[in-house]
Design brief:
With 290 residues, the protein is α/β, with parallel strands linked by helices. It is 37% helix and 21% strand. It has 9 helices and 10 strands. The protein has a 6-stranded mixed sheet, with helices on both faces. A 4-stranded antiparallel sheet has the order 2-1-4-5, covered by helices on one side. The radius of gyration is 19 Å and the shape is globular.
Length: 290
Amino acid sequence: MENKLNIEPKIDNEVFHNLATLQASRISENVRPNPILEAKNLTKQYGDHLVLPDLSFKIDDIAGMPEVISLLGPSGCGKSTLLRLIAGLEQPSGGELFMGGVSVSGPSQDRGMVFQKYSSFPFLNVLDNIAYPLIHVKKKKRKEAQEIAKYWVDRMYLTGAEKKYPSQLSGGMQQRVAIARSLSMDAKILLMDEPFGALDRKIRWEMQDLMAELLFYKPSNELTVIIVTHDIAEAVFLGDRIWVMQKGNIVSTTDVPRPEENSRIMHGKNEFVDIVNYFNDMIFNLEVGK
């Protein structure tokens, strides 16, 4: 029977060689002296529950290049907690976080966050939603703020919807507004917590393609993105690097290639599927062993 479900995927050994080669090639990148983000002995505890026991990591600041880190791991391993600490929405129980060598003590316009639940103001139209933080946080004049907002309306393929309100938009369009609002603020770090989890497959592919265009093919911001997702194929498609977490620790760091074609096509390519299976097996073994 054709198209039979492959319940025991075999990973081509060439995948391991290609990933190792890619990892080695990154040594030649132009890296600034201070990491864009660094954690030193970071801990987070809720009551008696220790979510992050002692986490240290460093994300290099690569000159002239956006970078995407996809964060995978079993449920409850600390992915979303880490994102909230980086955003400054919560404070660590111990240790310290640094951005560009400066201690992170709370929220900042240098760090934008996009949640799964749409976060637009229901009483503002698309253009005013994007312009709002430019006016009220960056203190820009309304005309300048709206010019910047219009630029991002066009970049996010929202042209024609400027005067629509969130209730008149699809889920994908609402997420595009939220992403545009963060990017319009010239955030250095964009944090995304299951941003496309509520979208159907077709819209999810479209959002992945849009992010690939913004970050890989036509970047206008030198941006570091950290995306938490349970969709392993999405993590591989969007990620330059995959972090796998278990019990509050990063247990694996792997560089992966950028996509050469759109999401729908890439998801069907054997090389892509092999990489997805590689991480799928890794996370399955972590879940079994937890």
